[in-house]
Amino acid sequence: MLPYERKKVIEEFLEKNGETTIDDICDITKDVSVSTIRRDLKTLENEGVISVYYGGIVKLNQYSTEQKIESKRLTNIEAKKSIAKYAASLVKPDETIFLDSGSTVAEMIHHLDRSVKVITTSLDIVMNNKNNLEIHLLGGKVSDVRNSVYGITTIDQVSDFIFEKAFLGANGIGEKHGITTPSTEESMLKKKIIQNSSKVYFLIDSSKIGNYSNCKISKIDENYVIMESKNQLTEIYKNILCPED
């Protein structure tokens, strides 16, 4: 089987299955050495088509569109809770922080000291403020997809704040495209928050590795990233933090 034929077989197999193992790919390509398959996979990874990570798992990289917040709340729940609890532990009493919209960041509100001042775009965070923190909700258009506010008004208002720490969400992370989001306005807002923050943490669970959207926020190594466990990216980037660290 020629190299381009193997690549086509691998891509078609992943289109059907989404995720598989190196052993399974060796089975379907037949009579091809493991070292050759690993070279093929590395080529596809360099092209941004797939991601290969711990345990020899191979995942097809997917273009990510914005999902409704109701759907996000129900996926990877334990990973998101672990990330959020760890992120909240990095916040000191009396700090002023920014909390982004998104299901993972929203979990942080349950673990923050009452002395912390929060600026946010998230309606979820406002509605779940059981500890009675001081919260400032920015103005703007309301998105029923993210259950948050957004737009030029939001960007203008956030420019007036300085944050000791900011905690942001994203739709995808990968070596080729960096950290991405589907919305131009969201990307602009996050970039402005990054400019106005002493420290920035992206809260991203490992299911988003290899996914990408059309608007780049930053490179992976430009800010801190918090993920729920070690993976192929933590081997490369020392700025990625995990609760087990």
From TrEMBL:
Xref: PROSITE patterns: HTH_DEOR_2 (PS51000)
InterPro entries, per the entry: Carb_Metab_HTH_regulators, DeoR-like_C, DeoR_HTH, NagB/RpiA_transferase-like, WH-like_DNA-bd_sf, WH_DNA-bd_sf
Pfam families: DeoRC, HTH_DeoR
Gene Ontology molecular functions: DNA-binding transcription factor activity
Keywords, alphabetical: Transcription, Transcription regulation
Chain ranges of the HTH deoR-type domain: 3-59
Stored SUPFAM superfamilies: NagB/RpiA/CoA transferase-like (SSF100950), Winged helix' DNA-binding domain (SSF46785)
Superkingdom as given in the UniProt entry: Bacteria
Annotated signal sequence range: none
Name assigned to this protein: DeoR/GlpR transcriptional regulator
Organism: Hujiaoplasma nucleasis
